[in-house]
Design a protein that fits this description.
Number of strands: 24
Structural class: alpha/beta
CATH topology of the largest domain: Rossmann fold
Number of domains: 4
Organism: Dyadobacter arcticus
CATH class of the largest domain: Alpha Beta
CATH architecture of the largest domain: 3-Layer(aba) Sandwich
Strand content: 15-25%
InterPro entries: ACT-like_dom_sf (IPR045865), ACT_dom (IPR002912), AHAS_small-like_ACT (IPR054480), D-iso_2-hydroxyacid_DH_PdxB (IPR050418), D-isomer_2_OHA_DH_cat_dom (IPR006139), D-isomer_DH_CS (IPR029753), D-isomer_DH_NAD-bd (IPR006140), HAD-like_sf (IPR036412)
Number of helices: 25
CATH superfamily of the largest domain: HAD superfamily/HAD-like
Function: Catalyzes the reversible oxidation of 3-phospho-D-glycerate to 3-phosphonooxypyruvate, the first step of the phosphorylated L-serine biosynthesis pathway. Also catalyzes the reversible oxidation of 2-hydroxyglutarate to 2-oxoglutarate.
Bound molecules: 1,4-dihydronicotinamide adenine dinucleotide, 2-oxo-3-(phosphonooxy)propanoic acid
Largest sheet: 7 strands, parallel
Catalytic activity: (2R)-3-phosphoglycerate + NAD(+) = 3-phosphooxypyruvate + NADH + H(+); (R)-2-hydroxyglutarate + NAD(+) = 2-oxoglutarate + NADH + H(+)
Protein name: D-3-phosphoglycerate dehydrogenase
């Protein structure tokens, strides 16, 4: 039996600039030292070009280094500022694995063509031993200006890194990690057993082309070598695809944790999505992207979907559940924004402001009260009395309206709102009708010719829910006939995918019709809230297994994982799976520290916290249980 164990660490040789830190030290020193210099930009650019040529192996490294030093006009105080700056620029994955670096300090070296003066203070912060840092040294004049480099240091010459490694004569496996060509040379010369091209901060195609191994992060390197690490599975290997211009806070949240994030401004159509979703583990969308069964068939690694909005009708929720994919949304984060727009539109429409404003823009002064009303005392009818409907109802009552609602589910009224028993009753009684149902298929054309005919003459009609809920042709007719005196429409059966596409509709140019491009939830406040909320749900699910708040998954809120390994097992909801799982635990003598189970009509979700020390065979047996949809292990 093979106990699941971690390997002892090899000797690890780490490059500093753009590997251990996110930036190039000398380039940053130039920026600091040349601050205010009239040619700062040009000189910094020259230095950066020389750095890149050297890193890519396109020029003699030693020549480039001397040319860069000659361009620098730095002194000792600039180095102090550089050190403070670099401490904030340590690569995230090294920061995350401080424990590994400290515990294995004897095996770890930094070999860099950068300079000890700034490398030692930064590297030692994470437990690297000062005498394990091999780097160049500056030469200063008596006024502390940098005037050159220590010419006796082998690292100031071409092939210097190889000489250092050769002199170290390390008695075991040696793995080099770096972004530059000189790091690759350690492997090419046979001095290192492996070279990992490190791409967390920069991808150098010339280096990647020759590297046998690529490490997208230090976690990735540790995972590849079965070494102890902060992440059970390196997040840099997990792809996150964010569509429809979700708030930048979302991108930051995933990047902070080391995920590989791709950001797309618009929506994608089904064909594009089928292509792009391959290898993606988390996808973030808004209301436009349709996640159909066909898209899910192409989603070979998808674990979780974030709807950065309220509605989830654009996602095939059942198909996602059957594949073990958890879907989360932001059920309340733009409620208020929709309500405010609805209130504003209602007042503008009942006063016929749009027509008057358009006329005045043409210089026509049309001062008259005819066809303009107050909303006070008018009857507002709400179709759908959920989060938005109820909040709208409270605000409308505060404005002096009489509120009526119809919801197909039994709902208690908030304030003095009155419940009606049929849609027909509501249509007949209301002066203003506002749609706030969800976008399920069955609501297609909920309002059509028949329903408009049932409304009062001169009614104000608003749809800020979903486009397909209203038959647009019937609405256009009702406006033209005067049945509807004003309409506010924010959502349409066919909406452009991006701001670059033209919008077409029968409603264009109709009088007293406010058209808005699906912006009910598009306020800075709502988008920022959503940008924080949805990633937090997705990350909880990915990192901890918690599915609380999911719209298609059995909901489980789990305690933080402590001193245990957590096994997450998603299976088809058929009898006997739990019994089989428990049998395997018993047979393998697994000590359980916590167990949770929840099912819904499609799937069962079992979470078991166990003590370390289980075998590969045990894991294999769990994976092979009939009905298993997905299995993963967290620690
Ligand atoms: N324009 C925009 O930018 C935005 C639009 N929305 C849309 O608004 C919808 C409503 O949002 P919430 O109030 O948060 O959802 P919710 O789920 O809290 O409320 C929807 C209510 O509609 C009721 N309902 C559904 N079908 C019905 C029918 N045929 N007849 C009567 N009642 C019916 C439900 O029982 C539920 O009470 C969302 O699903 C979304 O599609 C949401 C946010 C922004
Ligand atoms: O929240 C919703 O359901 C909305 O309709 C808002 O959608 P959006 O994020 O603007 O595409």
């Amino acid at each position: 039996m093979s106990i699941l164990t971690l390997n002892p660490a090899p000797y690890i040789i780490i490059d500093f600039d753009s590997t251990f830190t996110k930036v190039e030290g000398l380039d940053e020193l130039a920026i600091i030292a040349l601050k205010g210099h009239p040619e700062q930009d040009q000189i910094v650019q020259k230095i950066s070009d020389l750095t890149n040529k050297g890193m890519n192996g396109e020029m003699s490294f030693a020549d480039g280094l001397r040319q860069r030093i000659a361009l620098l006009k730095a002194n000792r105080s600039h180095i102090e500022s550089l050190i403070s700056f670099l401490k904030t620029k340590i690569s995230d994955s090294f920061l995350r694995n401080r424990q590994f670096l400290t515990e294995n300090a004897d095996q770890i070296y930094i070999v860099s063509s950068g300079f000890k003066e700034f490398i030692v203070p930064v590297a030692t912060q994470l437990g690297i031993l000062a005498d394990h840092v091999y780097a160049n040294e500056f030469v200063f004049d008596e006024d502390d200006n940098i005037i050159g480099i220590d010419e006796d240091n082998v690292l100031s010459m071409d092939g210097g890194k190889m000489q250092i490694l050769s002199a170290l004569n390390l008695p075991g496996d040696v793995y080099a990690i770096g972004d530059g060509y000189t790091d690759y040379e350690l492997k090419a010369s046979g001095l290192a057993n492996r070279f990992y091209a490190f791409t967390e901060n920069i991808e150098r195609p010339r280096v990647m082309a020759v590297a046998e191994h690529v490490a997208t992060s230090f976690d990735d390197f540790l995972y590849d070598n079965k070494l102890s690490r902060s992440q059970s599975y390196p997040k840099s290997r997990i792809k996150v695809l964010l569509l429809e211009n979700v708030h930048p806070a979302a991108q930051k949240a995933f990047q902070r944790e080391g995920f590989n994030v791709e950001f797309v401004k618009g929506a994608l159509d089904e064909d594009e999505l089928c292509e792009r979703i391959k290898d993606v583990s988390i996808i973030g969308i808004r209301s436009k992207t349709m996640i159909t069964k066909r898209v899910l068939d192409h989603a070979n690694r998808l674990m979780s979907i974030g709807a950065f909005c309220i509605g989830t009708n654009q996602i095939d929720l059942d198909e996602a559940a059957k594949r073990g994919i958890a879907v989360f949304n932001a059920p309340y984060s733009n409620t208020r924004s929709v309500v405010e727009l609805a209130v504003g539109e209602m007042i503008l429409l009942i006063r016929n402001i749009v027509g008057k404003s358009n006329l005045l823009h043409q210089g026509i002064w049309d001062k008259s009260a005819s066809g303009s009303f107050e909303i006070r005392g008018k009857k507002l009818g709400m179709v759908g009395y959920g989060s938005i409907g109820t909040q709208f109802s409270v605000v409308a009552e505060a404005l002096g309206m009489e509120v009526y609602f119809y919801d197909e589910v039994e709902k208690l009224s908030i304030g003095n709102a009155r419940k009606l028993n049929s849609l027909e009753d509501l249509l007949a009684i209301s002066d203003v009708i506002s749609m706030h149902v969800d976008g399920r298929k069955e609501n297609t054309n909920l309002i059509g010719k028949r329903e408009f005919d049932l409304m009062k003459d001169g009614v104000i009609f608003m749809n800020l829910s979903r486009g397909h809920v209203v038959d647009i042709h019937a609405l256009a007719d009702a406006v033209k006939s005067g049945k509807v005196a004003g309409a506010g429409v924010d959502v349409f059966p066919k909406e452009p995918k991006t701001n670059n596409e033209m919008f077409e509709s029968e409603l264009l140019g109709l009088p007293n019709v406010i058209l808005t491009p699906h912006i009910g939830g598009s306020t800075e406040e709502a988008q920022e809230n959503i940008g924080h909320f949805v990633p937090s749900k997705l990350l909880e699910f990915m990192n901890n297994g918690s599915s609380y708040g999911s719209v298609n998954f059995p909901e489980v809120q789990l305690p933080k994982l402590k001193d245990s390994h957590r096994l997450l097992h998603i299976h088809a909801n058929v009898p006997g799976v739990l019994a089989k799982l428990n049998h395997i635990f018993g047979k393998n003598n697994i000590n359980i520290t916590g167990q949770y189970l929840k099912t819904n009509e499609h799937i069962g979700y079992v979470i078991v916290d166990i003590e370390k020390g289980y075998t590969e065979e045990f894991i294999q047996e769990v994976k092979e249980i009939e009905g298993t949809i997905r299995f993963r292990m967290l620690y």
